[in-house]
Amino acid sequence: MEAKEISRFVKAPRLFGTNGIRGVAGKEIDSALAFRVGSALGTLFPKHKILIGRDGRISSPMLLEGVAAGLLAHGNSVEDLGLITTPALEFLVKNTASSAGVMITASHNPPEYNGFKVVDSDGIEIDRSKEEKMELLIHRDKWQASYQSGQRVRNEGGIRSYFEKVQTHVFARDGIGNLKIVIDTGNGVAELTTPSLLRKFGAHVIGINDVIDGEFPGRNSEPRPENLGALSRIVREEKADLGIAHDGDGDRAIFVDETGIVQPGDRTLALIEDELLRDHPGAKVVTPINTSMVVSEIASKRKGKLILTKVGSIEVARTVERVGALLGGEENGGIFYAPHHPVRDGTIAAVLVVNAIIRNGKSLSKLLDGLPKFYMVKEKIPCKEGGKDRAIKSLEAILKGRISSSLDGIRVDLEGRGWILVRASGTEPLLRLYVEAKTESHVQEILNEFRPLVVKASR
């Protein structure tokens, strides 16, 4: 590669963030970029069949056509899966010979956003080195088209094989018929999987925001507590056993217990971890550096081996695969269950939590009350896109000598109190601030000490 080309690439804006490419549709993300993504993917995976799928966003059909056009021009055959969840597409790529994939989605982002998640031939999002190769190809925008166009087929029934495989992980089938479950799919594509699965085994499922609609009229697509008021209320009103909330592409799940409390993703991860390590003591568990101490406490209790990664589903999934871990998990509701497929999957998360409730004969709140208790606060500090790295470097200089980890951002462990982590968001113009401690007063003390420093650095 010529030095001139390298220089041009280095100066070009970064496309891939923490999880794929995302931006405002029609502005940062348009049909021209979609064509270049398809062309780059076809160049990176020549002679491969490429599986393409989309979420329900208004702009997704347009972007899918652009990706397909780029792939077909390079001679790749294309299998169009239509509306599908990200974990289902990843599973199908894994189980289709000589294939790769791309999902058109912006996951939990607002409806005006869209993007691309690129899936390698093993059914896991491409690693960082392949992201860099794709970026170089996209920015070059020079293609050697095939003399013969690839072939395109539609296979909107492909999700059935994923659905059949997920069913094999439902171990507590006889007890599911006794459960009343409220499911809020947030007008996303998880409506195709979780409600149908649980109804199949006899659960009384009450659906809300259960029509796929890319404008997300029911609620914000991110399953955060402030967006799940309706789910909490209906769980209480219906005297349901639990509530389940998904994001836009179905790869995350957040749970509401029978009292209507929205439970943090860390705690349901710890519950699943406790259940699995009970049967597989000593197994490996992978989680990012921003995950609650409850996960490390359970690993210690069950003699599991905890492995920390940078934040991002790609980091967790690739590490689970590399080290042969049983489980991976994130604080945002992402669960990676290796016996199925080591990717973030909201429907598998629902299955594992339901299994735990029935196996133990206890309510979700009682199961979670049995876990060690910590207090965590997460905040978003606005920061200009170009200033995030500068802000982190400024904090490094201020906190020099106190930093316990620079694996991803800056983490300071405060002996006897808790910890704080500040990292640059990979998807939005902001810094993410995490504080955890054994008491609420310690959380507030840590925030009072460090938040002004973070705010000042972000300006």
Can you tell me about this structure?
- The protein has 459 residues and is of the alpha/beta class.
- The chain folds into three domains: 3-159, 3-Layer(aba) Sandwich (Alpha-D-Glucose-1,6-Bisphosphate, Chain A, domain 3), CATH 3.40.120; 168-369, Alpha-D-Glucose-1,6-Bisphosphate, subunit A, domain 3 (Alpha-D-Glucose-1,6-Bisphosphate, Chain A, domain 3, 3-Layer(aba) Sandwich); 375-458, Alpha-D-phosphohexomutase, C-terminal domain (TATA-Binding Protein).
- It has 16 helices and 20 strands.
- It has helices at 3-11, 31-44, 60-73, 86-94, 128-140, 159-167, 173-176, 194-200, 229-237, 265-279, 293-301, 313-323, 346-360, 364-369, 388-398, 440-458; strands at 16-17, 20-24, 49-54, 78-83, 99-104, 113-119, 152-154, 180-184, 204-208, 242-246, 253-256, 262-263, 284-288, 305-309, 327-329, 335-337, 375-382, 410-414, 418-424, 430-437.
- The protein has a seven-stranded mixed β-sheet, with helices on both faces. It has a five-stranded mixed β-sheet with strand order 9-8-10-11-12, sandwiched between helices.
- Strand 19 and strand 20 form a beta hairpin.
- Helix 4 (86-94) packs across helix 6, helix 10 (265-279) packs across helix 13 and helix 15 crosses helix 16.
- The longest helix is centred in the C-terminal third of the chain and has 19 residues, at 440-458.
- The radius of gyration is 22 Å and the shape is globular.
- The two termini are 38 Å apart.
